[in-house]
Amino acid sequence: MLILSCSSKLRLLEGTLRRHLPDTLLVYGTMMTINRGNPTAQEVLVDSWPEFKVVLTRPRREVASDDSDLFTNTYTVYSRDLGDYQALLASAGAVNWGQSFCILGLQDGVYEAYKDIAEAKGIKLEVFRYFNYFHPDPSSMPEIRSVLDPAMRLSSLDVSHADLLNETWSFGGNEKSRKYLATLIRHFPSFCLLDSAGHPVSWIASYPFHALGPGYTLPQHRRHGYMGMLNNLLAKRLHALGYPSYGYVDVENYPMQRLQEKQGFQHQPNLWYFILHNPALVNAPTLTPRPVPGTAPT
Ligand SMILES: CC(C)(COP(=O)(O)OP(=O)(O)OC[C@H]1O[C@@H](n2cnc3c(N)ncnc32)[C@H](O)[C@@H]1OP(=O)(O)O)[C@@H](O)C(=O)NCCC(=O)NCCS
After folding, report:
1. Closest C-alpha among 41, 99, 37, 69 to residue 171
2. 259 alpha carbon to ligand 1 midpoint, in Å?
3. Among 36, 143, 234, 245, which is disulfide-ready with 138 (CB 3.0 to 4.6 Å)?
4. Which ligand 1 atom is the nearest neighbour of the CA of 218?
5. Cα(294)–Cα(90) distance, integer angstroms
6. What pLDDT sits at residue 279?
7. Which of 251, 259, 245, 249 has the alpha carbon at shortest distance from 22?
8. Which residues form the N-acetyltransferase domain (predicted)?
9. Residue nearest atom 4 in ligand 1 by C-alpha distance
10. Which ligand 1 atom sits closest to the C-alpha of 262?
């Protein structure tokens, strides 16, 4: 196991991962964040260098100071060999087994490989599977004509909106999730629509691994094309900045799936795995998505 800290190696790794998109999404998006200022203080581990089969990104020790903060303690993984992935996970210091953390990966088998090790340690796990959508060329997305009534204004999210996002995000509802959402708003591209009083009615942010989301439209404002417009704008903005355009959608969220497909996002054959590690010794909040106001598709 090696921690890559040399900037030329990090740039080289980014270039190699780019050639293997969309399989390398998540780690590639995180690498871009690291190589462009690293606002969320991530670091990169590989099984070997310059030939590698596994890449794991994780928060640096100094930011992962809260053992129960599943949001800050988020890892992303890309693995071409599950045996090497298991070996990396098992090597001393790769993963902080004393913490609650979340591993995000796209390769089939990343959950099973991890589960074997966690079970041998008697560790409690949860896994969530989502559909993975990727747009190969957002510049070809159709122009969205404005759907705004004259009183509405297009803007980006502001940190003062973090409470609203926290109330409506299916993983939100606590202080750690509020802090995480404020970090997204502060450092990563977002769009929102404000009503005449300046309150957001529809919004979409982006993650440190540059996936689209969280997105939400207040129930009384749905089916006006707002999310279609914001999703389109954010995909194009991320593309213009050089980032890939992709995101995860709940397997039962048919409106969001239809919306993605109408805009040319391709449903990828592999799933998106959220693997949550809650060691019994830590009184950790669960990250199980909770019902939020107006979540049920209508
Ligand atoms: C999913 C959600 C964001 C859609 O927001 P919205 O502003 O209503 O979306 P739009 O009006 O732009 O709809 C765009 C397309 O989505 C689909 N769609 C949206 N709502 C739908 C619904 N209730 N039923 C069926 N299709 C729907 C349609 O394809 C629609 O286009 P069409 O009406 O021209 O056929 C909104 O329902 C929501 O906030 N849900 C709860 C949170 C959530 O699921 N967030 C996404 C997480 S990935």
Report:
1. 69
2. 6
3. 245
4. 39
5. 42
6. 54
7. 245
8. 152-288
9. 227
10. 29
User: Cα separation of 229 and 243, whole Å?
Assistant: 19
- The predicted-structure confidence for 108-132, as pLDDT tens digits, reads as follows 999 999 888 888 888 878 899 999 9
Structural contact between residues 243 and 18, judged by C-beta atoms closer than 8 angstroms: no
Tokens for 132?
Answer: 């993975």
pTM greater than the 0.85 cutoff:
yes
Mutate to test the pocket of ligand 1, among 132, 256, 267 (most ligand atoms within 8 A of CB): 256
Place of tokens 């080289």: 12
- What distance in Å separates the CA atoms of residue 216 and residue 207, rounded to the nearest whole number? 15
Give yes or no for residue 297 CB within 6 A of ligand 1: yes
How many angstroms separate the first and last alpha carbons of the chain?
Answer: 48
> How far is residue 250's CA from residue 229's CA, in Å, rounded to a whole number?
20
Ligand 1 pocket test target in 128, 144, 165, 227 with most atoms within 8 Å of CB: 227
Domains annotated for the chain, with CATH where assigned, are 2-135+272-277 (3.40.630), 138-246+255-266 (3.40.630.30)
CB neighbour list of residue 166: distance below 8 Å, 6 or more residues apart: 172, 173, 174, 177, 178, 181
Whether 166 and 177 have beta carbons less than 8 Å apart is answered as yes
Cβ–Cβ under 8 Å, residues 110 and 244: no
- pLDDT higher at 293 or 281: 293
- Residue of the CA atom closest to atom 21 of ligand 1: 255
Average pLDDT over residues 289-293: 57
What pLDDT does 147 receive? Answer: 73
